Structure formats: C-alpha cells, structure tokens
Amino acid sequence: MPPRNSIIDHQITDLASFETVTKDDSRQLAGLYFFMVLDRLVYLAEWLSHDVFGRPDKYSDLEMDEIELLANLHAKIGNDLVFPSREQREQIYVPVFGLASSASADFPRLRDRLMEAAANFANRQANEGVDPLIRGFRTALRTFNDFLNRRAGSSIRFSRDPILSTITEGIAYPILRSDKVASAWGYATEPTADWPYTDESPASELVDEMFEYFSNQMQPAGSEASTSTRGFAELQEVALRGAEAIANCIDVNPATKQDQIEVLIAKVYAWHVALAPQTQPV
Description:
single chain; 282 residues; 12 helices
C-alpha cells in the first residue's frame, strides 16, 4: 500500500509495473481482468503450436527451446494445471466478470454505473456543481469496491499465480515475442520483453495478421473476449486501462479526500473511453 495520505495512482507501463500493480493479494483481480481481455494471445500461441508442426517449412529457423515450448503447449493444453484450455480459463473468468454478452451480470452492471458517474463528472458543464457529481461517483464506487473485495481470496490468488501467470507470461507471451516467429510471419521487429504491457505497433499488427489467418483456418468457437472483432491495439488499451482502474478502485476508500477521488475518476473514465469504440463489453 502507498504511504498514508499519498495519492494512489497505479500505472502499468511495462512488465515490472504490471507485476507491482496486479500481484499484490488484494489487487490480483486486476491481473485476472488483463489476462481475460487479452486471452486472444493464449489462443494464438495454441494455434501456433499446431501450425509449427503443420507447416514446418515456415518455422524452420525457430530455436529448439522455442519448438520445445510449443510442443509442450500442444501436448498439455487442457491436461495440466498451468496449461488451462479455453473452457478451463472461462471457468476462472466468468464467475467473476460474467459473460461479455450479459449486461445484467454484476461486474458489467456495477462497472457501467461507475463509468457513467465518471463520465458525468468528466463531461460536466462549466456551471454544473461538482459536489453532487463527486457524491454520485462515491456511491457507485462503494458498491463496485465492495463487489471486488468480496471476490478476493485464495481462489483468485491461485488463479492469478501460478495458473494464469504461467500460461501467459510463462508460455504464450514468450512464444509471441520470439524474433523467429516474427520473422516467419514477415516482421523484422519482434515484440519486446515488456509487451503486451506496453503498446508496440508492429506487435499489434503481427497479432492481428495471425488472428485473421488462424480464425479463417480454424474457425474457433472461443469466448467473446478472445474472438472480439476489435483490433489487438484496442483490446490492449481496454486491458491496460481496465487493470489500472480496477487496482485503483480496490485501494481507494470511497470516503477519501476529493483530490484522490478525482484521480480515480480519471482512471475510470480512461477505461470507459477505451471501451467506447464498440458496444461489446469486455
């Protein structure tokens, strides 16, 4: 926790800050949200684990340790604790965040109420009183904060680490950061070690190209978050701003001073804006 009376302003800009913001016991829900929104990356790694054997000529330059990582994913997905299948990952996400198509589920309903209060403050007229808008946000925050805190616990901690941290940062993300994989797809610049926690345009383009190809080839019946028609850069913005906002909501007392509330309002509004390009919630 930050020192007493300091402004809480969790920000994710790289892998180290992601770990700092989302690995604390009380804030691991923020990490789960990030992994859920970017579940497309786990799909891509799984599809690559099939493609590398189906088209060996395309991936002839891959290192042996990369082939081994893909072979392990191919063999163990759905049959090992830290290699959860799509269905197993959804069993982690859905009880907390609901289905993306269900606006009546608790998480999207309370989130949208909080976002509406943040938007009312951000878009207020010059002659509009601030105090009622702050009170409205505090009320919405209180119920959202209570929802998040009631779901924290051993199950969420175990889901965050080791399960999801291993299938993402331990397996899928390193596969997609490979310079050999990028080269096989015609990209001279591979993602860095801080991606996907930071925006990198070539990496987003690579992911979008892979996703389009594999979606057409394999026609997966995945979850709405992973098969969203959003481009990866949009999904990444939702994941980052959402994880930051959730972490801040967990740490901020709804009764705190106004300047802290205004910082939190800005976080929630940024999340709201990230979701705005499409109506499909994630």
